[in-house]
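Lab manual, section 2.4: Encoding a predicted structure.

Procedure: take the sequence of the chain (195 residues), apply the prediction step described in section 2.3, and record the output as structure tokens. A sample record is shown.
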Amino acid sequence: MEQTPKKSALRLDTYQLAVAGVFGALAIVLSFTPLGLIPVPNPTGAATSLHLPAIIAGILAGPVVGALVGLVLAISSWARFSATFTTFAGGNILVALLAAFVPRILIGPVAYYVYRALRRWPAVASVGAGLAGTLTNSVGVLGLLIVLGTLPVELLVPVFSMNVPLEAILAVVITLPTVAVLRARRPGSVAAARD
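Recorded output:
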């Protein structure tokens, strides 16, 4: 009896590669155009939509693809905003790199696992995954800077009160219909919904 080789968790199929490519490219476009930033009057100057491709990629193609798209987001946002990260990190490059990369890499996997936990209720799962991915990004970046002592806690309220609600609403408004359409048009294409 011939055994089929076991698929490695890090080995991607054609669908996963396509999702990673499309949403990775979208993350780059958002990073280098005004589409990725929503002007707000607080110390950061902008709320972001940069996290959305990682959320959707994680839901559609799994945690590894979500992490890869998050990595693309981290690299492209570092290329554009490294000076801002370094300033908020008090000039500490290591802290700036941690804040720029770790939360972004975790956005897709967190969204995948939240959707997966709620998959019996697809609309609730999409909303939960969108919110969880957004909070992973916002709380992760700012939280790391605060925990590592480079960002004053006083900035937390103005940044969170303006950025997080806008980013969360945007995540829900984009994630909910996108995942619903893909589920309807291509049943079984949503990795986080599979049993």
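Check your result against the sample. Residues 156-185 form the longest helix (30 residues).
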